[in-house]
Design brief:
Order of helices and strands: HEHHEE
Number of helices: 3
Largest sheet: 3 strands, antiparallel
Strand content: 15-25%
Helix content: 25-40%
Shape: globular
Mean pLDDT: 85
Distance between the termini: 18 Å
Number of strands: 3
Structural class: alpha+beta
Strand order of the largest sheet: 1-3-2
């Protein structure tokens, strides 16, 4: 278990001293798998919420925190009218890994 971050709650707190919640770990595993196979995953936060059985706001907080910590990057996509549609999420690979 060394090198693995521990879980204290599933609330996705910002800057909680390095701990990842279960939802954050699940999201990161999913995004990392899709990054390895397909270069990333293009989906909406609603689709992720449905897949993981969580509220959209929870997914939003978790993704924001993962992005802030440098684990995940997101590329926003817009339709022809300028409305935001599904984003592409990618796991950021550790240097030297």
């Amino acid at each position: 278990m060394s090198g693995e971050k521990s879980v204290t709650s599933d609330a996705c707190p910002a800057g909680d001293g390095g701990h990842l919640t279960k939802t954050q770990r699940d999201l990161l595993r999913f995004i990392a798998g899709e990054t390895a196979v397909n270069g990333g995953v293009r989906c909406t936060k609603r689709e992720l919420a449905d897949q993981f059985g969580r509220n959209v706001k929870t997914i939003d907080r978790c993704l924001s925190d993962l992005r802030r910590r440098g684990f995940v990057e997101a590329e926003m996509t817009f339709d022809e009218r300028g409305a935001q549609v599904a984003s592409t999420y990618r796991a950021v690979l550790a240097k030297g890994a």
